[in-house]
Structure formats: structure tokens, C-alpha cells
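Q&A log
Question type: sequence-to-structure
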Amino acid sequence: MVPNIPAPAASAVAAGADRSWAGQHSAAWPGLALAGGGAAIGLAVHEWWPSVSAHVVAVVVGVFIGNLPLRHARFAPGLRFAGRHVLRTGIVVLGLRLSLGEIAELGPGMLVAVVVVVLGTFVGTRLLARLLGVPPGFALLVATGYSICGASAIAAAEPFSDASEEEVAYSIALVALCGSLAIGVLPAVGGLLGLSSEMFGAWVGASVHDVGQVVAAASTRDHEAVRAAVVVKLTRVALLAPLLGAVAIEAQRRRRRSAPTTPTMAGPATAAARRPPLLPWFVVAFLGAAALRSTGVVPADGLAAAQHLETFLIGAGLVGLGSQVVWRRLRVLGGRPLVLGAASWALVALTSLAAVQLAS
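Response status: OK
Response body:
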């Protein structure tokens, strides 16, 4: 039997629900504005100093915010929203950079080399983590970030990792640090090895994490190096979806093994409904954006605008993630994660150099 609620009381209940909904969403705006401001700073710094990635600046701004002694709690909801939802929207727009035609131009040898680099880095990093005694959730984040596209890949893998906020923040800080170091280290090593512009660009694209850092490192040579670096890098990005599919299957099997075997009131239907999808919505949308880009229907002006939008959205998301890098909390994790990050950076650099030389 449905209770008979007087009209004034029902109106009050509805109004209270509306105010609650509005209050929850309005609470995010201060933090979102702060994240957007940090992304704008990153874009401005990159405009003035092209060798500096806008995304690296965004992470630094976020870390600065997260370690302010007087950080106000009113910014926290929006920063968390940016670090999750805004960043994932940026990953979707990133798909518009991918063209199947450009990837096909690499040829079978270089395509195999890229796959070898991604799989070698992903599997090797997790094996190194096991030797170092690093938690598997953190190892999964580092392995995904170093093998694919840095912070964006970490954000995509986070739902399957069961990692803590501190571990997510630490992995973001590691890829930002190593990617920034690569801008100076790889050109110097490439010069000593006498690599051609095309081979140097392919090496940069196969080993550096963030797209902006790839462009910055390759631009120390010439346009040919930049073009090779970007195509190889975007081919790595294209492997995000199949890699996440494998990670999702592994996560589902792990959770089924750890789930209680005793029957519950929820029943099998409810348990199946709670099971996460094989691929998150934003990865499916990322593939849709890449398919749209490959059709050639998006004009050049639209692609340029999408690239600026993608940089801003991912930058705002990285401000949100960077704000979780609180040094006093990260000290609890110890130094082994830092050793893993350095070892994984060396692994991807050496593996990609060998693969590119064999494919050329």
C-alpha cells in the first residue's frame, strides 16, 4: 500500500532532494575551477617554452596544491572529479589523434617492434615488482603507464588495480619524473649512438610516456624525427584498449577467486550486475573516436581544436591526480616503488632501442 503523503509534504521532500542533488554537484565547482586554472598554466608554459610538456606542468601544479599547508577542503570534491571523470573524457578525445592509415604506414616490422616494447615493458615491470616486493596493484599501474602513455594509461587501469590513492599518485609522479628526464637524456644518448633522425624519432616514440614529452624530445632533432616519434607513439596508444581488455579479464578472474563462496541474499543476478564491464566506457569511446578519425570526415581545423581540448582536459585531470601526491603520505610506501620506476624506465628505453634497431 502506497502511503498517502500530503501535497505540501511531498513538495518539501522533492525540493529537499533537488537541493541535495544540486549541493553535491555545486560542491565540485571550486575544485574544478582550480584544476582548469592549473591546466591553463600548463598550456601557457608550454606555449612560452615548447620543450616543457603542458601535462608535466599540470602534475607539478597539482602536487603543489596537494602539499599546501592551508589547502581548503572545499576544493577536494572538484579535484577528485577532475582526476577521474575529466581525465577520462580527455582520453576519449585523445582517440581523435589516431589514424589507422598512419599506423599502417609504419610497416609490419615496426608494428611488431611496438608490440614487443609494450608487452616487454608491461610484463617485465610486473616481474621486477615481484622481485622488489612491490604491491601488485601499484605494479600494474606503473607497468601500464610506462608501456603505453603515462598518466592517461594509469587512469585507465586504475579501476582494475585495487590500488590506494597514494599508490595512484605515486605512479603518476613517477611517469611525470621519468618522462621529463627523458627529454634531456634521450637526445644526448641518441647523438652518442649516431642514430638517424627517423630511428631516433622511432626510439623516442617507443620509449617516452606522454605525447607532449615525445614531441619535446623528438623536436631536439628535426621534423622527420618528430613525425616518426608521433606515429610510433600513437601506435602505442592504440594498444591501450587490447591491453586493458586483458587486464580486465585478469581482474575479473582475481576477484572471482577472492569472492566468498558462501551463498548470499544478493543472488547471482545481483553479483553479475556488480561485475565491472570488460572495458570501461571511456575506452570504448576512445576506440570510437579513433574510428571516426580514420574515416577522414573530421576536418583539419576540427582535429586541431580537439587536440587543444584534449590537452586541456587531460591537464585538468592531472592537476586533480597531482593534488593527491602528499609527500608525508607517500613516505609510507618507502623507496622500493622509486626503484621500480627507475628500473622500468631503463627497461622500456633499452627494449625500445633494441626493437627499433632490429626493425629498421
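Response note: Residues 170 and 325 are 7 Å apart (CA to CA).
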